[in-house]
Amino acid sequence: MNTVFLGTLAHLLDNPFQHPGALEIIDRGALLVGPDGRIIAVGAKDKICPGLSASTTIVDYGEAWLLPGLIDAHLHYPQYYAVAAANRGLLSWLEQTVFPEESALARVDYASRLADELVRRLLGAGVTTAVVFGSQFAQATKSLFAAAKQYGMRLFAGVTLMDHGGPEPLLTNPETAWQVCEALYGFCCNENNLHYLLTPRFALSCSPALLEMCGEFMRHHPEVYLQTHINENREEIDAVAKAFPEAEHYLDVYDQHGLLGPRTLLVHDIHPQGAELRRMAESGCSVCHCPSSNLFLGSGLFPLRRHIQHGIPIAVGTDIGAGLHFSVWNELPEVYKIQRLQGVNLNAAQLLYLVTLGAARLLGIEAETGNFEPGTMADFWVLDLEDDLYLKHRLAHCESAEARLFTLMHLARHHCRAVYIQGKRCKSRHL
Ligand code: GUN
Ligand code: ZN
Fold first, then answer.
1. Residue 135: which residues within 8 A CB-CB, separation 6 or more?
2. In the sheet that 23-33 helps form, which strands lie side by side, from edge to edge?
3. Is residue 228 very low, low, confident or very high in pLDDT (cuts 50, 70, 90)?
4. Taking a C-beta distance cutoff of 8 angstroms, is the pair 183, 144 a contact?
5. Model pTM score
């Protein structure tokens, strides 16, 4: 049986950084979804509804907005309870806050409770796809995959790999790492919405042998994804230059081990050299910007314009626990402000693209999720203003639908009423 969802629809038809008319907002819109969870049609309610059969279920969200499921392109599962700790910058924060917290996931019951809480919290905020640094403990990362599977979330995740520069229980070696990654990779291959992600932490916690293992794994399994950190903090960059004196720059450390390609997502890249941007573009890498994390750790201001000029695809992540929000939607005002500080003006279409279609495209899942294109899965969330009189009145002062969307991005923070993945409502008792 088909279902039609009614509300104000907003989504991207294309990349608004290249196509200014790419944003479509449909007041009194309708989204028709088939029993397989795929979108059959999208458009004005007055056009779609008269042709529907009597058996079609109608779900009317009135004045609420229906937005494509959000994609959080970077966060750390074992840092769920490390959010909002006072810090003095990346490297000391890792030592003092992160490593102790990540060590706690050796306890299987704790790790599995955390996985359940994290997945429910992300879904409850409208995040239907997440790219996640898992735990160093394979059992804990398995419980993350299990939670995502239970609730139906799309997940890219892997065991966080490090073989030095941290407490002993968090460390692995290349042989063990290969076996663990191989087992979890095999598990993901049989699951529609789960993808294995190689996650060497960063150059400072990976030996050349461990990076080499990752490169070898990518050559062995061309469908695997890889995510790592780069150019986040000046102190970190100096330390990498010292640890890898033969590397031309930070990116070169990863390049020398064969880690670059279209399935590689580099996180932060706040202080890139021109040569690094050129090489990223040439090799097809993408970059994930984590605004609240960058501000909270005092890491710097992301040079978005330089990345766009080089044609590097960009997504946005919460970077929990350095980031302060569980919804990547709440990162959008930070994205906007960081660019304003650099004289760059982003519009609502560009902001929405970064956390929906743009991220789906760089992950290669745009045939499944990212917008309301017929044929894709109905992944969406419902932004409801019912209880917010101020916001309702504020929107009445906006001159266009796009202006309303921009205002919503800045003021609607806890307004997610329902979440759907593949046309099915994520049960509210879970959220
Ligand atoms: N660089 C290496 N590890 C981390 C981490 O856990 N968080 C952030 N923000 N940067 C990192
Ligand atoms: Zn991170």
1. 77, 78, 102, 105, 111, 141, 144, 159, 160
2. 39-44, 23-33, 3-12, 57-68, 380-383, 416-421, 424-425
3. very high
4. no
5. 0.98
**pLDDT given at position 340:** 98
- Phi, psi dihedral angles at 16 (to 5 degrees): -70, -15
Strand runs labelled E in 110-165: 127-133, 154-158, 160-161
Residues 83 and 110 in one domain: yes
Say if ligand 1 is within 6 A of residue 232 CB. yes
Q: What is the CATH number of the domain that holds 253?
A: 3.20.20.140
Q: Whose CA is nearest to atom 11 of ligand 1?
A: 229
Same domain assignment for residues 291 and 407: no
Q: Are residues 63 and 82 in the same domain?
A: no
Q: Are residues 46 and 172 in the same domain?
A: no
User: 170: Cβ below 6 Å to ligand 1?
Assistant: no
Rounded to an integer, what distance in angstroms lies between the CA atom of residue 14 and that of residue 217?
33
In the predicted structure, residue 397 carries a pLDDT above the cut 80: yes
Taken in order 140, 146, 152, 156, the sign of the CA dihedral is positive
Look at the chain and report how many structural domains it folds into.
Answer: 2
Which of residues 413 and 251 earns the better pLDDT score? Answer: 251
The answer to whether residue 395 sits within a structural domain is: yes
Angle subtended at Cα 224 by Cα 220 and Cα 230, rounded to the nearest 5 degrees: 110
Range of the domain at 61: 3-68+371-430
Nearest ligand 1 atom to alpha carbon 76: 6
Mutation probe of ligand 1 site: the residue of 229, 265, 297 with most atoms within 8 A of C-beta = 229
| Element containing residue 198 per DSSP (H, E) | strand 194-200
What is the best residue among 75, 80, 90, 265 to mutate for testing ligand 1's pocket, by most ligand atoms within 8 Å of CB?
Answer: 90
Q: 186 CA to middle of ligand 2, Å?
A: 25
Which of 326, 359, 379 lies at the terminal end of a domain, its last residue?
326
Q: Is the per-residue pLDDT at 53 higher than 60?
A: yes
107 and 144, same structural domain?
Answer: yes
Same domain, 50 and 76: no
